[in-house]
TrEMBL record:
One of its GO terms (molecular function) is thiosulfate-cyanide sulfurtransferase activity. It comes from Minwuia thermotolerans. It comes from the Bacteria. The lineage of its organism: Bacteria, Pseudomonadati, Pseudomonadota, Alphaproteobacteria, Minwuiales. This is Rhodanese. InterPro entries: Rhodanese-like_dom, Rhodanese-like_dom_sf. SUPFAM superfamilies: Rhodanese/Cell cycle control phosphatase.
Amino acid sequence: MPSGVNQMVDDAMARVETISVDDAKELVGKDGVTIVDIRDVRELWRDGKIPGAYHAPRGMLEFWIAEDSPYTKDVFQTGNRFVFYCAAGARSALATDTAMKLGLTNVCHIGGGFGAWKKAGNEIEAVEKK
């Protein structure tokens, strides 16, 4: 049993596929790929997001992925490859692990998250408050 959040993240990292920012950049806009931003909406408003990323807040992820949930989102039933990211990679590792437990098989996350994306100088899409 995990002894704390760091252990939980380490355990998730051992089970999930981590891809580089460069590999993620190659997947943006590709058919059959959904980039999923799990950060809080306030982070998106403040920092923007990867162009075209689908926003699925971490707190709703299980409910949006599970087919038996009244809140399930069709996007997660497409059979696409899902590439999750957060700010630095810890939340997205946990999210990817959770997605696998809920039956998604073609999933990974971006090592270093949005921070690494931004540091690499990649394009950022602004997100306006609604």
